[in-house]
């Protein structure tokens, strides 16, 4: 932080308070970031608490395979990110750049693990398409590469003589860390929608399907709406909208690095919560393997679910990706 950005300690009523060394507007933003991190932490811990039963079933009564490991890693890294940002905002820290490096790495790991949950879903829906696998693999790698810009660019410094840290640098190139997940999530959302659309709408022409997908009328519109809800696509839509909102906030020129940085934490937490919710619904059979029919919800009946019983549904087996 530059010296002109700080107030002089002389004459301060409470020189041990970090916000006393900040201009009033910046001090307000700093306090708001604390409240936002605290609210995000509380909401995410509450989400974890509500799903402890489901998570224990996944861990102890279900085969722990790669997708389940990714699920728990995404939860762990996201929680670690929120905790690190909260601690950074409220606690004295000796080395500011060390903690910013720590939570930046957690951000990259959380983002890529969540993107992997999206990847598993879309490749299962498009199985056995090698083209889809290759395209979404490259998008996932793009998310990973874009995320690396955050630990390379974000910097913090102590506020005056205190041990409290504040964000001082958020380079423009870190915006790619929000752009790539938006591209990835949007592509996955549209790809799954089209796959469901192709097996739901009565009209078999591409023009008819696109018209219904884009909000037009068609004989299968009501069916499509129901199917998209049953397949968890509304949760993916929330994730896409969250990334759009975050990108807009990052593009606003008058926002300080504090404002730009603090909104990314609740955004990542919400996207992760949506991806994990869809994952649990798939594992427990609340979303059918074909995106159309609902599988039984009992643990003993949803193993090795396929869509072969419905000749008009997608021909795939979730066991290739979810180990069920």
Automatic annotation (TrEMBL):
The keyword Transmembrane helix applies. The chain crosses the membrane at residues 69-91, 98-119, 131-154, 235-255, 261-279. Keywords: Membrane, Transmembrane, Transmembrane helix. It comes from the Eukaryota. This is Uncharacterized protein.
